[in-house]
Amino acid sequence: MKRYGFIFARGGSKGVPGKNIKPLGGIPLIGHAINAGKESGLLDRIIVSTDDKDIARVASKLGAEVPFMRPPELAQDTTPEWLAWRHAVEQMDDFDIFVSLPCTAPMRTSEDVRTCITLFEAGGCDMVVTAREADRHPSFNMITLDDNGLASIAMPPTENIARRQDAPEVFDMTTVAYVTTPDYIRQHNGVFEGRTKAAIIPPERAIDIDTELDFAFAQFLMERKQ
Predict the structure, then answer these.
(1) Which of 55, 104, 151, 185 could be disulfide-bonded to 143 (CB atoms 3.0-4.6 Å)?
(2) Which CATH number is correct for 3-134+170-225, 3.40.50.300, 2.60.40.10, 3.30.565.10, 3.90.550.10?
(3) Where are the domains of the chain?
(4) Residue 19: exposed, middle, or buried by beta-carbon count in 10 A (0-12, 13-18, 19+)?
(5) pLDDT tens string 145-192
């Protein structure tokens, strides 16, 4: 069973310029993904897909492989991540398990990576994603606005439920890890086209960096942890 870890890190981040190699807790952001993959003890290779030479250089220095460069057309703001996954799979030799470890979840642990791989290999699904318990519920405190600016509950309860605690539990997807097979990526076009399971991650390890505020919060959490 060959398991390959992949880190997809393009150079054109808008929310946090230079995000993927910006220092966080003393090492470049991408280093946290590389280290979690290494320390999981379950990945045979850790491969970085990037269009950026600086990211490639830093990733190589931190112990990841950069066996190919991603074409510019697969590194645009509008490029579906799935196409970058498919491109990466096609560049590699035959392997069994695909594990994506996005740079944007630096608080993940090696145990989180092992949990996701173990859940997938237990069977019964085509993909494993990660999620955390949601802070808000679409039936109680999430709203939509119509063309006139009038608000309504995003997902009105179908039953007479008065308390959030009595409503079906909902989760926020996170970017801690994705686990599937190369064949699933080749034959499908999205995470939920098949049978998908979720590994539930504690909120303090599920932060997803998209903005400068997210980055500052991750820095705070890391400093407190140290």
Answers:
(1) 151
(2) 3.90.550.10
(3) 3-134+170-225
(4) buried
(5) 999 999 988 888 776 665 556 667 889 999 999 999 999 999 999 999
